[in-house]
Amino acid sequence: AYDAGRVLRKNIESLNNQFLAYLYSSAIWVNIPLAVPGQEENWLSNEAKVRLRISKPYERYYSTSEMDSIYMDEHYENRGFPKYSFSTETVATSTNDIAKATSDLDLIRVVPNPYYAYSTYETNQLDNRVKITNLPQRCTVSIFNSGGALIRRFTKDDPSTSVQWDLKNQAGIPIAGGVYIIHVKSQDIGEKVIKWFGSLRPIDLNAF
Fold first, then answer.
1. Are 50 and 30 in contact (CB under 8 A)?
2. Domain boundaries in the chain?
3. Which whole-number Å values give the CA distances from 138 to 64, 95, 141, in the listed order?
4. Cα dihedral sign, 199-200-204-205
5. Is there a smaller number of Cβ atoms within 10 Å at the N or the C end of the chain?
6. For the domain 98-207, what is the CATH code?
7. What is the mean pLDDT of residues 177-184?
Protein backbone atom coordinates (compact mmCIF):
# COMPACT_ATOMS: atom_id res chain seq x y z
CA ALA A 1 0.00 0.00 0.00
CA TYR A 2 1.22 3.53 -0.75
CA ASP A 3 2.33 5.37 2.40
CA ALA A 4 3.62 8.66 0.89
CA GLY A 5 7.22 7.65 1.60
CA ARG A 6 6.77 7.11 5.35
CA VAL A 7 8.74 3.86 5.48
CA LEU A 8 11.48 5.22 3.22
CA ARG A 9 11.96 8.28 5.41
CA LYS A 10 11.97 6.19 8.59
CA ASN A 11 14.74 3.95 7.28
CA ILE A 12 16.78 6.84 5.88
CA GLU A 13 16.66 8.69 9.22
CA SER A 14 17.72 5.53 11.07
CA LEU A 15 20.90 5.41 8.93
CA ASN A 16 20.31 1.76 8.17
CA ASN A 17 23.32 1.10 5.93
CA GLN A 18 21.84 -2.02 4.38
CA PHE A 19 18.67 -0.17 3.51
CA LEU A 20 20.57 2.85 2.18
CA ALA A 21 22.58 0.57 -0.11
CA TYR A 22 19.34 -0.93 -1.42
CA LEU A 23 17.74 2.50 -1.81
CA TYR A 24 20.63 4.07 -3.73
CA SER A 25 21.04 1.02 -5.97
CA SER A 26 17.34 1.27 -6.87
CA ALA A 27 17.35 5.01 -7.66
CA ILE A 28 16.83 5.44 -11.40
CA TRP A 29 15.38 8.96 -11.71
CA VAL A 30 17.74 11.94 -11.40
CA ASN A 31 16.85 15.56 -12.06
CA ILE A 32 18.80 18.84 -11.93
CA PRO A 33 16.82 22.04 -11.17
CA LEU A 34 17.09 24.65 -13.94
CA ALA A 35 17.70 28.32 -13.27
CA VAL A 36 15.09 30.98 -13.98
CA PRO A 37 16.35 33.30 -16.76
CA GLY A 38 17.92 36.41 -15.20
CA GLN A 39 18.43 34.76 -11.79
CA GLU A 40 21.37 32.49 -12.59
CA GLU A 41 23.41 33.80 -9.65
CA ASN A 42 20.73 32.78 -7.17
CA TRP A 43 19.40 29.69 -8.95
CA LEU A 44 19.61 27.32 -5.99
CA SER A 45 16.79 29.22 -4.26
CA ASN A 46 14.35 28.35 -7.03
CA GLU A 47 11.45 26.02 -6.39
CA ALA A 48 11.54 23.01 -8.71
CA LYS A 49 8.72 20.51 -9.21
CA VAL A 50 9.27 17.14 -10.81
CA ARG A 51 6.31 14.93 -11.69
CA LEU A 52 6.83 11.37 -12.84
CA ARG A 53 3.97 9.13 -13.92
CA ILE A 54 4.95 5.50 -14.31
CA SER A 55 2.99 2.27 -13.97
CA LYS A 56 3.56 0.15 -10.90
CA PRO A 57 6.33 -2.31 -11.85
CA TYR A 58 6.43 -5.97 -10.95
CA GLU A 59 9.26 -5.73 -8.46
CA ARG A 60 10.02 -6.96 -5.00
CA TYR A 61 8.56 -5.13 -1.97
CA TYR A 62 6.10 -3.02 -3.99
CA SER A 63 3.26 -5.03 -2.49
CA THR A 64 4.39 -4.63 1.14
CA SER A 65 4.10 -1.58 3.36
CA GLU A 66 6.92 -2.33 5.80
CA MET A 67 10.53 -2.56 4.66
CA ASP A 68 12.39 -2.85 7.99
CA SER A 69 13.32 -6.48 7.27
CA ILE A 70 14.06 -5.94 3.62
CA TYR A 71 16.98 -8.35 3.65
CA MET A 72 15.12 -11.02 5.60
CA ASP A 73 13.18 -12.77 2.85
CA GLU A 74 11.60 -15.22 5.25
CA HIS A 75 9.53 -12.34 6.70
CA TYR A 76 7.84 -11.69 3.36
CA GLU A 77 5.17 -13.76 1.68
CA ASN A 78 6.23 -14.83 -1.82
CA ARG A 79 9.73 -13.41 -1.12
CA GLY A 80 8.46 -9.86 -1.45
CA PHE A 81 7.09 -10.21 -4.98
CA PRO A 82 3.48 -9.24 -5.76
CA LYS A 83 1.14 -12.17 -5.30
CA TYR A 84 -2.05 -12.88 -7.25
CA SER A 85 -4.61 -15.64 -6.96
CA PHE A 86 -7.31 -17.07 -9.19
CA SER A 87 -9.56 -20.09 -9.24
CA THR A 88 -10.43 -22.59 -11.96
CA GLU A 89 -13.24 -24.08 -9.90
CA THR A 90 -15.91 -22.97 -12.38
CA VAL A 91 -13.87 -23.84 -15.49
CA ALA A 92 -14.48 -27.21 -17.09
CA THR A 93 -14.08 -28.75 -20.53
CA SER A 94 -17.35 -29.23 -22.38
CA THR A 95 -17.86 -32.10 -24.82
CA ASN A 96 -20.50 -32.88 -27.44
CA ASP A 97 -21.73 -29.29 -27.37
CA ILE A 98 -22.76 -28.66 -30.99
CA ALA A 99 -23.78 -25.03 -30.37
CA LYS A 100 -20.36 -24.24 -28.89
CA ALA A 101 -18.54 -26.12 -31.66
CA THR A 102 -20.49 -24.19 -34.28
CA SER A 103 -19.62 -20.83 -32.74
CA ASP A 104 -15.97 -21.90 -32.51
CA LEU A 105 -15.82 -22.10 -36.30
CA ASP A 106 -15.40 -18.31 -36.16
CA LEU A 107 -12.00 -18.90 -34.53
CA ILE A 108 -10.57 -20.57 -37.64
CA ARG A 109 -7.68 -18.53 -39.03
CA VAL A 110 -5.02 -18.64 -41.74
CA VAL A 111 -1.67 -17.61 -40.28
CA PRO A 112 -0.18 -15.33 -41.42
CA ASN A 113 -2.85 -13.43 -43.31
CA PRO A 114 -1.85 -11.55 -45.37
CA TYR A 115 1.28 -13.48 -46.27
CA TYR A 116 4.14 -11.23 -47.37
CA ALA A 117 6.65 -13.74 -48.74
CA TYR A 118 7.63 -15.08 -45.30
CA SER A 119 6.27 -16.85 -42.24
CA THR A 120 7.89 -18.12 -39.06
CA TYR A 121 6.83 -21.67 -39.98
CA GLU A 122 9.34 -21.78 -42.84
CA THR A 123 12.67 -23.55 -42.36
CA ASN A 124 14.76 -22.49 -45.39
CA GLN A 125 14.84 -20.24 -48.48
CA LEU A 126 12.80 -22.68 -50.57
CA ASP A 127 10.11 -23.28 -47.97
CA ASN A 128 6.78 -21.45 -48.26
CA ARG A 129 4.29 -22.32 -45.57
CA VAL A 130 1.18 -21.09 -43.77
CA LYS A 131 -1.10 -22.74 -41.22
CA ILE A 132 -4.87 -23.04 -41.08
CA THR A 133 -5.58 -23.13 -37.36
CA ASN A 134 -8.35 -23.85 -34.82
CA LEU A 135 -9.84 -26.61 -36.96
CA PRO A 136 -12.31 -29.23 -35.69
CA GLN A 137 -11.13 -32.82 -35.42
CA ARG A 138 -12.91 -33.95 -38.60
CA CYS A 139 -13.19 -31.54 -41.51
CA THR A 140 -12.36 -30.91 -45.16
CA VAL A 141 -10.32 -27.84 -46.10
CA SER A 142 -10.71 -26.73 -49.73
CA ILE A 143 -8.69 -23.88 -51.25
CA PHE A 144 -9.97 -22.04 -54.34
CA ASN A 145 -8.52 -19.21 -56.41
CA SER A 146 -10.51 -16.04 -57.06
CA GLY A 147 -11.94 -17.63 -60.22
CA GLY A 148 -13.44 -20.53 -58.26
CA ALA A 149 -11.00 -23.23 -59.43
CA LEU A 150 -10.01 -25.81 -56.82
CA ILE A 151 -6.32 -25.42 -55.95
CA ARG A 152 -5.80 -27.78 -53.01
CA ARG A 153 -7.85 -29.94 -50.66
CA PHE A 154 -7.00 -31.40 -47.26
CA THR A 155 -9.02 -34.04 -45.43
CA LYS A 156 -8.44 -33.97 -41.69
CA ASP A 157 -9.45 -36.63 -39.16
CA ASP A 158 -7.14 -36.38 -36.16
CA PRO A 159 -6.93 -34.51 -32.82
CA SER A 160 -4.56 -31.83 -34.15
CA THR A 161 -6.05 -28.35 -34.55
CA SER A 162 -4.27 -27.19 -37.71
CA VAL A 163 -3.05 -28.15 -41.18
CA GLN A 164 0.00 -26.77 -42.97
CA TRP A 165 -0.19 -25.57 -46.56
CA ASP A 166 3.04 -25.33 -48.53
CA LEU A 167 1.44 -22.87 -50.99
CA LYS A 168 1.37 -25.45 -53.76
CA ASN A 169 -1.54 -26.85 -55.76
CA GLN A 170 -2.61 -30.48 -56.00
CA ALA A 171 0.15 -31.13 -58.58
CA GLY A 172 2.88 -29.75 -56.30
CA ILE A 173 3.34 -26.55 -58.34
CA PRO A 174 3.79 -23.27 -56.40
CA ILE A 175 0.75 -21.02 -56.58
CA ALA A 176 0.76 -17.45 -57.87
CA GLY A 177 0.32 -14.53 -55.51
CA GLY A 178 -3.19 -13.22 -55.04
CA VAL A 179 -6.46 -13.72 -53.17
CA TYR A 180 -7.64 -17.24 -52.32
CA ILE A 181 -10.83 -18.57 -50.75
CA ILE A 182 -10.46 -21.22 -48.04
CA HIS A 183 -13.56 -23.28 -47.30
CA VAL A 184 -13.68 -25.41 -44.15
CA LYS A 185 -16.52 -27.92 -43.85
CA SER A 186 -17.33 -30.26 -40.99
CA GLN A 187 -20.22 -32.67 -41.47
CA ASP A 188 -21.04 -32.59 -37.76
CA ILE A 189 -20.70 -28.85 -37.13
CA GLY A 190 -20.97 -26.54 -40.13
CA GLU A 191 -18.93 -24.48 -42.59
CA LYS A 192 -16.55 -21.53 -42.53
CA VAL A 193 -15.17 -19.43 -45.41
CA ILE A 194 -11.98 -17.35 -45.11
CA LYS A 195 -10.31 -14.99 -47.57
CA TRP A 196 -6.52 -15.16 -47.73
CA PHE A 197 -3.99 -13.00 -49.56
CA GLY A 198 -0.47 -14.12 -50.36
CA SER A 199 2.48 -12.39 -52.00
CA LEU A 200 5.14 -14.94 -52.90
CA ARG A 201 8.86 -14.25 -53.15
CA PRO A 202 11.01 -15.26 -56.14
CA ILE A 203 13.15 -18.38 -55.81
CA ASP A 204 16.43 -17.73 -54.01
CA LEU A 205 19.01 -19.22 -56.39
CA ASN A 206 21.75 -18.70 -53.81
CA ALA A 207 20.22 -21.60 -51.90
CA PHE A 208 21.38 -24.11 -54.53
1. no
2. 6-80, 98-207
3. 52, 15, 10
4. negative
5. N
6. 2.60.40.1930
7. 94
